[in-house]
Amino acid sequence: MVGLVAVRRRGLRRASGGVFEVEVAAERGCVPGVRRGVREWLERGGGGVAVGELEVVVSELVTNAVLYSGAGSVVVAGRRSCGVVRLEVRDGGRFVPPCGEPDLLATGGRGLVLVGALVEGLGGRWGFVDGVGVWVEVPLSAAADGVNSLRGEG
């Protein structure tokens, strides 16, 4: 029953299929459920989205929020409009990660490097929201040819 307990949805709001939002308790176990929810939302929206890559991006951002923000909850929101998918992970914390190269011998600290590489590889962009969250925008056409490199599809 771990999967059912891990994600406590406090409020899931969807409007016109193009919007997704969920708030979860900032606990380590919440990441798989959030990832699954985002994947299902992206898949319902039809083609043109690199689902596997965006799953990894959301996983990294939610994990960072859980580990470093000190917040009690994390909000993940998504919107499809004007040819772009926008995802946001907000935690309300004031922690802004340091910029620079990660320590190659450390057990962590590469998440944002991975996020940047994936998003930029899809022709997108990303940034911080006043220390309370991170946003990611990827063109819907980023995977219009049906390629989903993380699943080996295409």
Automatic annotation (TrEMBL):
Keywords for this protein: ATP-binding, Kinase, Nucleotide-binding, Serine/threonine-protein kinase, Transferase
Domain Histidine kinase/HSP90-like ATPase: 27-120
CDD domains cross-referenced by the UniProt entry: HATPase_RsbW-like
SUPFAM superfamilies, sorted: ATPase domain of HSP90 chaperone/DNA topoisomerase II/histidine kinase (SSF55874)
Molecular functions (GO terms): ATP binding; protein serine/threonine kinase activity
InterPro entries with a match to the protein in the record: Anti-sigma-factor_SerPK, HATPase_C_sf, HATPase_dom
Name under which the protein is recorded: ATP-binding protein
